[in-house]
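Appendix B, Record 12. Input sequence as logged:
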Amino acid sequence: MKRTATLFWMVLAVAACCTTTARAQFGFGLGLAAIGDNISQAGGELGDLIRDDSISYGDISGNIGFYVSARARFEMGMLRLLGDASYVYFQSSEITLTDAAVNLQDSTVDATFEVGTSMIPVQVGVGVALPVPVVKPYLAAHFGYTFVNRTYTFVSGSDELRRLDVGNRSAGDPEVGLAFSAGAEVALGIATLDVGLRYNLANLFTTSDGEEPMRYLQVGASLIFGGDL
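Logged structural output:
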């Protein structure tokens, strides 16, 4: 594993040293996002808001949302230094709490809430693209810091939970993780069309005990502008 990592960085260094042209570029992108295993985060954060003693909840994974992004990169031959910030939004879906014993009530209650999730990942990374004309395939890895926000709306259930003030409060802790992307770039004259996908492990370094990985997939396109330095 260590030899592989050393060889990878040597290839990047050679690519950077052998290039004669550097380009600073910027652009914007949009696309779809699919949320993966996200059950513990949504249920646990709602559990924190209602101060539960015990809690179980339904599955809200698999939702389709959208994202928009602003991107910048410094291109040196095959090597790219990358940076971007995105806004990722997942449509609201219902989560049902069962067997939730509220501290202030000596009873077991249940309720259904509508949960909406939005995230702002800020990522920096490094990538390599094949030096071929017109269409260039690429691979990249990104380190990311993600701001997570969830909102909850009471839909139905026990009056004890209806009276709790969760509708106007948000939940979600910032997460630190990695992402991996692949795609192809198509030269369009004054701009470059970047079509690709990115797989995010948003909380890879901040997963707590009993917490599922926060994983989601982005598929979309970006327009990149910029010239030689």
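The chain has one domain: 24-228.
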